[in-house]
Amino acid sequence: MTAQPAISRTGGTPSRLAWLDVLRGVAALCVVFDHFGAFMPAGIRGVVNQWFNPGDYGVFVFFLISGYIVPASLERKGSVRTFWVSRIFRLYPLYLLAIGLAVALWMATSAACGARTPTRERRCCPRC
Predict the structure, then answer these.
(1) What residues contact 112, with CB distance under 8 A and at least 6 apart?
(2) Is 128 helix (H, G, I), strand (E, B) or coil?
(3) Which residue in 3, 43, 98, 113 has the fewest CB atoms around it within 10 Å?
(4) What are phi and psi of 39, to 5 degrees?
(5) Does residue 108 contact residue 127 with C-beta atoms inside 8 Å?
(6) CA–CA separation, 128 and 126 (whole Å)
(7) Angstrom distance (rounded) from CA 128 to CA 121
């Protein structure tokens, strides 16, 4: 019987720690549970929140993982400049896409509600 290595290779990136990916996934699910908790039955939400605050846990774990990963990434990149350039090119395209989608969605819902004028007010939804 051979022991499994602690470092696994996934997707072409150099050595990722699989247990950190699992921990990050659990933290993300906790945050999602917290955000969508209003749609859950009150009994389940009450029991969970009585003993455990999933939102606080998820955010706390994300900060802990970042505190571990950022220095490791800095060490692997070799310079702070290289780290920040790679970080910007990794994060900002998706960020800008999300902003663009949010603006497009806002414009589409605003157009669907119609223009309000002082003499004529259109209401098609509670937000309008």
Answers:
(1) 124
(2) coil
(3) 3
(4) -90, 0
(5) no
(6) 6
(7) 9
- State the amino acid at position 103 in one-letter form: V
For residues 6 and 99, which has the higher predicted lDDT (pLDDT)?
99
Take residue 34 and report the two structure tokens written for it.
């917290």
pTM for this prediction: 0.56
What is the Cα–Cα distance from 128 to 115, expressed in whole angstroms? Answer: 9
> Residue 46 corresponds to which amino acid?
G
What crossing angle do the helices spanning 54-77 and 80-113 adopt, rounded to 10°?
140
Position with higher pLDDT, 112 vs 79:
79
Q: Which residue has the tokens 């606080």?
A: 56
- 14 phi/psi in degrees, rounded to 5: -70, 140
- Residue 34: count other Cβ atoms within 10 Å of its Cβ: 19
N- to C-terminal Cα separation, the chain:
66
Token pair recorded at residue 95: 């960020």
Q: Are 113 and 120 in contact (CB under 8 A)?
A: no
